């Protein structure tokens, strides 16, 4: 299922479904996959180059880098699924997931198995998964080898135009985004090594830049480092659209699935989304929301953050409760980063804050969505939690609100990119 004619067939399928969805759906549906399938064209011409740029490490968001798999499976879910491969192939983003049987094979390869005793996730039996391109940028620039789905390409190209050099002064730290930070010791060791290596090579402290969930990995990483280490190696953190207090959307994803606005079977994709430990990690926190705020409303119950146990039981996903229990501490504590922070996010865009379901909960989609402020994906209450660190650390916290900008505008929009450049070149001022 891998030759070019098939690929372009699949691509046209996707584009057809994208345009159907675009015309039919509300603005909240225009989410990340649409953005990456139809990215804006970035500036490709280098103009004036700066030679003394500070080194930069980028940590992408959820589903924001490639994953590769190699198979030697004891069993497959359909006879058409590949059972054994002698090589690693791209599992994310893999266009076979848009084919009727392809999606079943894909889910059985990408799913994780959770062990409640060890609180660890492992791959589906007979599947080896690796993250390609650590320390390079290609795996976050485009999510597929055919360069159809452009994610951080616009941002990286913009930086290259100002004088950055790919895989030298700008590097990325992709990770297995199925797995929450508490299971990522090995990744954090590699990240630390990468930062120290860049510090040594360029004789300058390193900037970190995260998009979306990537910022939670950065924060988790910084929590583990001594202040002395941070003072020496880190120049600052630029956080773009960070869900510091989780997202309400993650509850809807776990309840009824998220097909990324495409023609994917919701109940199937939900099955995959429930196997990760990242989705339960991102539940909205008590830091961000009042105790009586209803996230999910059904004819029989109104769920607030005090009702997560019942929520997981009612949606038939007990593992989710264990996963959340194990991971919630970090986001409710929300330790200050201990480095200078540029906390950038979009605001004043309609963002779901309550999902209303009918009696078919959780197997049907919500019948109504109540919106509040935010960047369309993350609620303002969550994005703006970085404010509180102003009193908790001596390093500066700059809160930069981008009005009317969406979650993905922070990495695509020219104003945001310009601001990132100003910060990196030491040319940023509050006014
Ligand atoms: C979970 O891990 C424990 C300890 O390694 C092991 O004894 C147990 O069999 C595992 N459970 C499952 C369901 O694999
Ligand atoms: C849920 O909250 C709404 C709005 O406050 C209320 O009208 C409804 O009766 C509540 N439902 C239940 C089951 O408590
Ligand atoms: C920095 O800002 C100043 C004043 O706004 C401007 O004149 C200068 O060109 C900028 N420098 C860079 C490197 O962008």
From TrEMBL:
InterPro entries found in the cross-reference section: AB_hydrolase_fold (IPR029058), LACT/PDAT_acylTrfase (IPR003386)
GO molecular function: O-acyltransferase activity
SUPFAM superfamilies in UniProt: alpha/beta-Hydrolases
Signal peptide: 1-25
Keyword Signal annotated: yes
Alphabetical GO biological process terms: lipid metabolic process
Top-level taxon: Eukaryota
Alphabetical UniProt keywords: Signal
UniProt keyword annotation of Transport present: no
Similarity section: Belongs to the AB hydrolase superfamily. Lipase family.
Protein name from the UniProt record: Phosphatidylcholine-sterol acyltransferase
Species assigned in the record: Chiloscyllium punctatum
Lineage of the species this protein comes from: Eukaryota, Metazoa, Chordata, Craniata, Vertebrata
């Amino acid at each position: 299922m891998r030759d070019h004619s098939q690929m372009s067939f699949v691509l046209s399928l996707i584009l057809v479904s994208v345009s159907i969805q675009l015309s039919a759906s509300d603005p909240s549906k225009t989410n990340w996959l649409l953005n990456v399938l139809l990215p804006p064209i970035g500036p490709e011409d280098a103009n004036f180059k700066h030679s003394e740029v500070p080194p930069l490490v980028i940590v992408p968001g959820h589903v924001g880098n490639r994953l590769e798999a190699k198979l030697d499976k004891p069993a497959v879910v359909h006879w058409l699924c590949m059972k054994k491969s002698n090589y690693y192939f791209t599992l994310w983003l893999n266009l076979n997931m848009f084919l009727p049987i392809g999606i079943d094979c894909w889910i059985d390869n990408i799913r994780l198995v959770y062990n409640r005793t060890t609180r660890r996730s492992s791959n589906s039996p007979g599947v080896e998964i690796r993250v390609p391109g650590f320390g390079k940028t290609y795996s976050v620039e485009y999510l597929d080898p055919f360069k159809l789905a452009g994610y951080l390409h616009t941002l990286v190209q913009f930086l290259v135009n100002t004088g950055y050099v790919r895989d030298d002064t700008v590097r990325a730290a992709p990770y297995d985004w199925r797995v929450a930070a508490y299971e990522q010791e090995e990744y954090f060791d590699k990240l630390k090594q990468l930062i120290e290596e860049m510090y040594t090579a360029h004789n300058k402290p390193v900037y970190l830049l995260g998009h979306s969930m990537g910022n939670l990995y950065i924060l988790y990483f910084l929590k583990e480092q001594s202040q002395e280490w941070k003072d020496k190696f880190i120049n600052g953190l630029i956080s773009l659209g960070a869900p510091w207090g989780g997202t309400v959307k993650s509850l809807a994803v776990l309840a009824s699935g998220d097909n990324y606005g495409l023609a994917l079977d919701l109940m199937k994709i939900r099955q995959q989304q429930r196997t990760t430990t990242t989705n339960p990690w991102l539940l909205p926190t008590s830091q961000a929301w009042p105790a009586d705020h209803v996230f999910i409303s059904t004819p029989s119950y109104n769920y607030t953050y005090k009702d997560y146990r019942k929520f997981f039981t009612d949606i038939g996903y007990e593992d989710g409760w264990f996963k959340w229990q194990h991971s919630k501490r970090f986001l409710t504590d929300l330790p200050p980063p201990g480095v200078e922070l540029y906390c950038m996010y979009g605001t004043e865009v309609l963002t779901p804050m309550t999902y209303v379901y009918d009696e078919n909960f959780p197997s049907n989609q919500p019948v109504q969505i109540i919106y509040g402020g935010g960047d369309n994906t993350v609620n303002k209450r969550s994005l703006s939690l970085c404010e509180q660190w102003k009193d908790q650390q001596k390093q500066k916290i700059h809160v930069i609100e981008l009005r009317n900008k969406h979650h993905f505008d922070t990495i695509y929009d020219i104003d945001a990119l310009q601001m990132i450049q100003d910060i990196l070149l030491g040319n940023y001022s509050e006014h």
